[in-house]
Design brief:
Phosphorylase Kinase, domain 1; alpha+beta; 568 residues; 19 helices
Length: 568
């Protein structure tokens, strides 16, 4: 087939060889090792290519369909590479795949009209190389699909959507697209190469000086407004997608999740259902594409500014599920509490940008940029200080556990007081119950304080659950009725522990509640309750704990599954 001079001769055996290789690849896809071995014995001439086919198949982990069969165009037989061809083996790193790619096999190679110089970065779907375009002698960023030629049709569509979304854009703060194409079936596009760092790298050093952060984000917001004026919502704005060039000018990049609106009709092209949880707006976290609008990007801009000022995003929990739930229901810590150097005017801008309801945010990225410019020029802001009702709502979202405890304790205190005024029970009992409720309120405030500190948050959850159970048991003991109205507190505490999304905490709270109730029944005179009733209540309490824990387990399994899918 090769005459040694770099030519490929036409030979009648070529077609037969391609057919055998095609059968061998089908055997690999179906997992039929015996068929692979039989083909190798019958056709030893295919051995130079079998190792390459096996490696390519392993690179396709995660790209299979639901039946476990790898997708492939059956109308395009696998052609053996000729001497002038270089098969590009680009795949995920060893942390996400079974095959670790040796970068020495890639860097320095020629890829079409480009020479690959170094890997510049990679994400869930693409890998970016610094490359030299040989005909124009310029350095560009060359992005390829991470799963190489084994990419599914949907991945190719999403990949080209990213290029299409950015191809028509010409803005000094938006990374431009140069060329879109493919080499040997490997899809790629090239774009401006930005030699500087990303905002993610810059923020690793800690909070940024407020004026510099405001200046950078005013520029980014203006660039995002340009995207919106061209019918594009980015949907994945985050520090790692904002690069700084050698002049310290920010550049917006990565349009893999861009949503394109054309005219009055809406066409959605998306690289994933969700973006990055810590920076996504609540309407995006709900997964409802119809709710996505330019104000979705305004939220992300506010979240990025929040991180530049404080050193952390508004919400960053132990896993994606907890983070998304906080995005939907929680309220971020006030920026000045994390960094006292943040001016209150700038904090007002951030908090308005990351409002839960889109209608309460800035109406556009341009409005956000204008307010940042007003701040930098020491001019009055367009956004006004929030009112009392909004402050209460934010406090309720920021500290829901404390608010729930305070409401329950105050309601109980009111009932006890009304009962004392009407029925005039023992003053001693009244004083003891009210004192216990006061202690309970102070305990809740202390636990909430510890919960706000990352180093003591885990301890605070267990301490809070323990003290709740102990104080409830003490209250039941003082009332002298192990099956009185307050006994409903046990299942409420167990169910409430599930809101922390910690399965061990649920089991711990359930077990502690059962033990505490058993001790309470043991200490009370038998005439205060019917013999079988405590056993019935204990069974019901155990079932509530089991159901809460089981549902939480299901949510955690789903969360891990979607995290794995998103990482592929």
């Amino acid at each position: 087939m090769n005459d040694g001079a770099g030519k490929v001769d036409s030979h009648p055996d070529d077609a037969r060889l391609c057919q055998v290789l095609d059968r061998y690849l089908e055997a690999i896809h179906s997992g039929d090792d015996a068929a692979c071995a039989a083909l190798l014995r019958e056709h030893p001439e295919i051995s130079p290519w079998t190792s390459q086919l096996g490696a390519l198949d392993r690179l396709s982990v995660g790209q299979s369909n639901r039946d476990g069969v790898h997708r492939r165009d059956r109308n395009s037989p696998m052609m053996p590479p000729g001497p002038q061809e270089t098969t590009p083996w680009f795949g995920p790193d060893s942390s996400n795949n079974d095959v670790a790619i040796d970068k020495s096999q890639i860097l320095g190679q020629t890829f079409g009209n480009y020479e690959l110089l170094e890997e510049a970065g990679r994400g869930g779907m693409g890998v970016v190389f610094k490359a030299r375009q040989r005909d124009l002698e310029r350095v560009v960023a060359l992005k390829m699909i991470l799963s190489s030629r084994l990419a599914s049709d949907d991945e190719v569509r999403r990949f080209h959507q990213e290029a299409k979304a950015a191809a028509g854009l010409r803005h000094p703060n938006v990374v431009g697209i140069h060329e879109v194409g493919q080499v040997h079936g490997q899809h790629y596009f090239t774009m401006d190469f930005v030699a500087g760092r990303s905002l993610a790298k810059l923020s690793e050093a800690g909070p940024m000086e407020p004026d510099r952060a405001a200046r950078l984000m005013a520029t980014v917001a203006s660039a995002v407004e340009y995207l919106h004026s061209h019918g594009i919502v980015h949907r994945d704005l985050k520090p790692s997608n904002i690069l700084l060039d050698d002049r310290d000018e920010p550049m917006v990049t990565d349009f893999g999740l861009a949503k394109v609106f054309q005219g009055n009709s809406e066409q959605t092209r998306t690289g994933a259902i969700l973006g990055t949880p810590s920076y996504m707006a609540p309407e995006q976290a709900r997964g409802n594409s119809a709710e996505i609008s330019p104000r979705t990007d305004v939220y992300s801009l506010g979240a990025v500014l929040y991180e530049l000022l404080t050193g952390r995003p508004p919400f960053r929990e132990e896993n994606q599920l907890d983070t998304i739930l906080q995005v939907l229901e929680g309220e971020p810590t006030l920026p000045h509490r994390l960094n006292p150097r943040i001016p209150l005017e700038l904090e007002r801008i951030v908090l308005r940008a990351i409002e839960k309801l889109p209608a309460n945010r800035y109406e556009s990225a341009a409005a956000l940029a204008n307010d940042l410019e007003h701040y930098l020029r020491h001019e009055p802001l367009e956004t006004r200080p929030i009112g009392l009702r909004q402050r209460i709502r934010r406090f309720t979202r920021r500290q829901p556990a404390l608010v729930a405890h305070e409401a329950a304790i105050l309601a109980t205190a009111a009932i006890v007081h009304v009962n004392y005024v009407i029925n005039r029970p023992s003053l001693t009992l009244y004083t003891e119950i009210m004192s216990l409720l006061a202690i309970w309120l102070l305990v809740a405030i202390l636990c909430q304080t510890l919960l706000l500190r990352e180093r003591t948050a885990a301890l605070a959850r267990y301490a809070w659950a323990t003290l709740d159970v102990i104080l409830l048991t003490a209250a039941l003991y003082l009332t002298g009725s192990p099956l009185g109205p307050l006994v409903v507190g046990y299942p409420l505490i167990v169910a409430g522990s599930g809101l922390w999304f910690r399965m061990r905490l649920v089991w711990f709270t359930t077990g502690l509640s059962l033990i505490s109730y058993a001790v309470l029944v043991r200490l009370m005179p038998e005439e205060t309750y019917q013999t079988t009733h405590p056993y019935i209540f204990a069974v019901v309490l155990a079932l509530i704990g089991f159901v809460t824990g089981y549902q939480l387990h299901r949510l955690q399994v789903l969360s891990r599954y979607f995290e794995q899918q998103r990482g592929r």
